[in-house]
Every structure is written in C-alpha cells, then in structure tokens.
Amino acid sequence: MRLSLLLLVVSTAVASAGDAVIIPKGAKLELLFTRSAPIKGGLTEGPAVAPDGSIYFSDIPFGSDKGMILRFDPKTKQTTVFTDDSYKSNGLKFDAKGNLIACEGSDEGGRAVVSWDVKTKKRTVLADKYKGKRFNAPNDMTIDTKGRIYFSDPRYLGTEKRELKHRAVYRLDPATKEVVEITHDCEKPNGVSLSPDGKTLYVADHNNGTDRIDPSRPTPKPGAMKIYAFSLDEDGLVKGKRKTLVDFGAGPGCDGMCVDVKGHVYLAVRDLNRPGIKVIDPEGKEVAFLATSPSQVGAKSPVGIPSNVAFGRGTESKTLYVTIDVSLYRIPLGVEGYRPEK
Fold this sequence. Notes:
It contains no helices and 28 strands. It has strands at residues 2-3, 8-12, 28-34, 43-49, 55-60, 68-73, 78-83, 89-94, 100-104, 112-117, 122-127, 129-130, 133-134, 141-143, 149-153, 168-173, 178-183, 189-194, 200-206, 225-231, 243-247, 254-259, 265-269, 276-280, 286-291, 306-311, 319-324, 327-332. A hairpin with a 7-residue loop joins strand 5 and strand 6 (68-73). It starts with a strand and ends in a 10-residue tail after the last strand. The relative contact order is 0.16.
C-alpha cells in the first residue's frame, strides 16, 4: 500500500552559539510523510533505520483503532505500510541480524518486546513478562554491542490491569530470553539510550501523572520530568547512584532520544513553550537546539511536538529523522549517529 508523500521544507533549524558542527547553518527540517490513514488520535513514533537505509516508524492511534508500522524509502521518497496491525508498537530498532525489534504498548496492544522478520513479516514475541507478570507497556529501547535490548516499561494508555509494581527499565537477552531489571529508580521511564562506550545508560523520566490519558478528564499533576545517567559495570548493570543531567521542572520533558558518535544525546522535548530536539553533552550541558515548531499559542494541530529521533545510515549517517505530531521529518546534520551493530 502506497501512502501520499509530502515533501516540504519547513522550520529553520535553531541552534545555540558555537554548535555549527552539529547543526549546519541553513539546515532545515524536511517533511517526508503525514498520516493519511483513517485512524484517530495518537502520534508517530520510534523511527529506526534498516540495513538497507530505509526508515521504519510507528503510527500509534488511541483505543480500538489498530496501529501501523510504516516504511519510508529515502531512494524513492515513498512511504508504504509494513503492517497495518502493529500491536500498538512504539519504539523500534533493528538488531545486527536485520530483524526489526518493537516495543508494543498497552491500550489494546501487545504489551511485549517482539521481533519482526522484515522479509516474511513474521512476528515473534521475545518477552511479555517479568517474573511471571505482564509488562505494563513497553515503550522505547536501545540495543548494546552484545545484542541485548534495554527497554523502558512505563504506562500511559489503556484500561488493562497493571500487574507489575514498578515502572522499570529492563534488559532482554534475545539469545536466552532472560529479562533482568536494570533499574526502577525513576517514576516513569520513557526514552532510553546508551553512550557509545556502553558505560552509561541514559533514561528519560517522563511522568505525566496518569496511567491512562483521558482528554475528557482534568489534566493530572505531572511528576518527574528529568534526564538521568546511570553508570554501568562490565556486565551492563547499574553501579552507583543515578545522576540527573537535565531537570525540565514543571514543564513537559523528553520522550525519545538517540546519541551520536561524539557522545551527544539528542532529546525529543515535548514542551509547547520550546518544542524541539535538545542536544546535550554527557554532563547535561545544552550544546545545540533544533526547533521543531515556533511556540503556537492556542494551536490545536499540528503543534510541532516531537516524539523520537534516529540517525540514518550509509550516505545518511549524518541525517537525523524525527517523528513530530503525526508526521516524519529529516534534517542533515554535521555529525554521524552512533550505531552499536557490528
């Protein structure tokens, strides 16, 4: 199935002084795709680059509407449907074998971490439980050089009963199917990423104050909106106390994230007052900022709120793909993205 393609250049990149290497002067976001399927609510999420350079991403609706996984081909500039039932997939990544790994959420989704064979479209559940209890709603992930999957398990949507006490970050070893809890020293973990040397796990704490988003009810009081750094030992387990790199305060914080080869962390910040990609160094200092929309007071849709980020590969290793609202964008940068696959 081929979807309509929009190719528009929008939103001038806005960066802090002295960061021209990260965001070149004049670089702009290019609109590649906007949802046309008759599904309601939700957002696009989880861009991931395949071995052939194509970009897979999730389109997540609310409620009974089925989610999709879509594929954008940089060569043809066409977007097609990989599957029209994603089990409410959110974060996506490709492993070293070329399998598409997906975090499936709640709200009538799979609540599991799964693997898709992109050639046969066969879906295989890798894990849906921790110590016999169903996951809350796997959200986002990162993969280390050993092929182990670190993933977050918060909960934002759905009526399913929660079985686990904590909203934690876990690690899944696809070879053994073993799931270990990495940390629950966070209120509601969302985006996760690893430093290029594998010694630091970055976690976005994005506590919106509810397990079920309901626009008809009063806005809940949010909790922690922070970026943490956890030091990891030689076994990839947390050692020592967490370090807070960014505190967004009372405003909306970060959703997804990724890293570049220099160790910068790219944060998809959902603050209406300053929506965009905040780039920080390993100490939490902002070194660049890419605005995904100017502040639009009173705007309903689109509002330019990013959800996740990923670098391309090959000739696009310096291209950043961003899911914003219900669309997919890209922008050329001055630094390559980091890839753990060998």
